[in-house]
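Regression check, adenosine-5'-triphosphate case 575:
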Amino acid sequence: MINYITLTYQVSGDDFTRAGEASSDVKSKLKQMGVSPEMVRKVAISMYEGEINMVIHAHGGIIKVTISPHEILMVLEDQGPGIPDVEKAMQAGYSTAPENIRSLGFGAGMGLPNMKKYTDEMDIKTKIGVGTTVTMKVKL
Amino acid sequence: MDKFFNAVRLDESLCKGCINCIKRCPTEAIRVRNGKAVITKKFCIDCGECIRICPHHAKLAYHDQIEILEQYEYTVALPAPSLYGQFNNLEDVNIILNGLKCLGFDDVYEVSGAAELVSDMSRKYVAEHMEQWPIISSACPSVVRLIRVRFPNLIDYLLPIKAPIDLAASLAREKAMKLTGLPSEKIGIIFISPCPAKVSAVKTPLGIDKSEVDGVLSIKDIYPRLVSCMNAVENREDLEDLTISGKIGISWGGTGGEADGLLTDSYLAADGIENVIRVLEDLEDQKFTKLQFIELNACHGGCVGGVLTVENPFVAKVKLKRLRKYMPVARKHITSAEAFHGFWTEQVEYEPVFKLGEDMIESIAMIAKVEELCQKFPGLDCGSCGAPTCKALAEDVVRGVANENDCIHLFRQYIHKISDEISMLDKTGRIQNPE
Ligand SMILES: Nc1ncnc2c1ncn2[C@@H]1O[C@H](COP(=O)(O)OP(=O)(O)OP(=O)(O)O)[C@@H](O)[C@H]1O
Ligand SMILES: [Mg+2]
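Current build output:
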């Protein structure tokens, strides 16, 4: 018996207003599966931050979420500019978001730190000019 | 009492089985089965959207009738602030309040008076509970019901203070008992309500153990009789002053009124159930961390937009505004004895009604099947199967309450396939015959 499911989402980089749709869908599915509210919250927040980063910083990408009874694995892959200094990017408050994005309430530099905070494992693989893959795991 | 009591009902004889209500329902609680709408009780939050949209008036709100007054020795009317927005050229709230007495009530207790106490308490509570910001208003019962089934992470943000109607009921009962010396059961506390959600909130309250409201009448129902009573009392010299509220209390009848009473700018007020859901989704993802308070009303315009009202909600809001113009800001201030009645006593529990399987493994298999079916269905969300969307049908199939071939598009393919097979048979038959 298959005891996991992988959901795949194409995240559009042009339509800013659609950012958050993928995490919202995952959230409702997790609730349908009876995952505890606390875990739903962790996944929803971390995936939302990752999804928004993809849209704002990397022209979109693909998100794969694998849900199994003991963990939720999120892989966010983009072909964006890459992150020059991951350690710096991970610092709370660090942001390269342009002014027009900041005026929408983004760019506090809290996305990556929150993703780290709300997940049990997080890994960033990135190459300048090639893209970034963020992998996050929440243990159930 | 069933914890999923709901006040929205169907008159089968009027239902034509169209798709208006299934499409409109924010929790996808309605299906058309065998040509009639069926409401799944545990999904229904009593928002009244289906009542509003049904072109055949087949959706009704369960509530009490005026005859309920006969069951009690002494009755008190509790008019909702939204009631005040229903009349033309009204100069004085006392005309309504005296009109209610003329209608048969022994006394009146303005819900807006209790609303001012709730404002007082909330102001203090919000200031003292920064860790709970943004605190979500709990006055609209549909919103509380929605949070209970769909937003478990937000339950802790609910303002644990009684809705004005519940506080008004406690205080009105206490006053009536003192005044008449009658035992509690001989006193009828009757709410004049703008919406069906309040009926459910009275029958199966959340946050409190038992509601002190004994009956709920609909504004719409009593309206014609109340208007004639108001005409009768209007020019009376001895009009009794029965008002106990000012601007803050009356403003609760429209969207933004509750938040205004907190005297802070750090709030957001959303109305209309689809907007409420958007705000709750965003709150769940922690998108607004800087606000102190979130006011939410299921109806557009706030309570004046309730389905049991008469006047267009936007006009009603203007009328409320006009009426409160010369009123004092507030008349009621909380005393410690009243505050004693004001807080919630019960924890609101998450009810995972939308859960698919018994456990994770089963649910994962079910979600996989839903995804597979969604690929198969045409994605037109036409509603012909009786479910609001293809996804909802897929979930119904997986839950075992519907069939794949309820989709007329799949069914057509199926028929084509069969008829092709039959015609093939026919051909082979003909080839064989001449021999
Ligand atoms: N997928 C990505 N591709 C390229 N750069 C990224 C990506 N994700 C993050 N970054 C870089 O890392 C920085 C920090 O990201 P973080 O999410 O912490 O903050 P932010 O997105 O700038 O602001 P906030 O998330 O608070 O709105 C970003 O400003 C950006 O320079
Ligand atoms: Mg970010």
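Comparison notes: Residues A 49, 52-53, 111 surround magnesium ion (ligand 2) (CB under 6 Å). Chain B has a mean pLDDT of 93. No diff flagged against the previous build.
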